[in-house]
Amino acid sequence: MKQRLIEIGGWYGTVAIVGAFALSSFAIIKPTDSIYQILNLTGSFGIIAVSLYKRVWQTVTLNSIWAVIALIALAKILLNI
């Protein structure tokens, strides 16, 4: 059951990040919209979880950096910086 939940989280992450990129690329949302950054942040968490479980350290590193970038961008959006 635990493995299945982790796999679902990983698939959510993939869909969220690719979905955010697609929505931005087709000008449906902007990178300055909070939903874009939320999708990237939560998506990276899902991919981090499955990558930790499978011990894929390159993907853990990449998505950890992705999460930090999304978190900083989201903070800037919400704080109007």
Automatic annotation (TrEMBL):
Domain CBU-0592-like: from-to ranges: 7-78
Spans through the membrane: 12-29, 35-53, 60-79
Keywords noted in UniProt: Membrane, Transmembrane, Transmembrane helix
InterPro entries linked to this entry: CBU_0592-like
Name recorded for this polypeptide: CBU-0592-like domain-containing protein
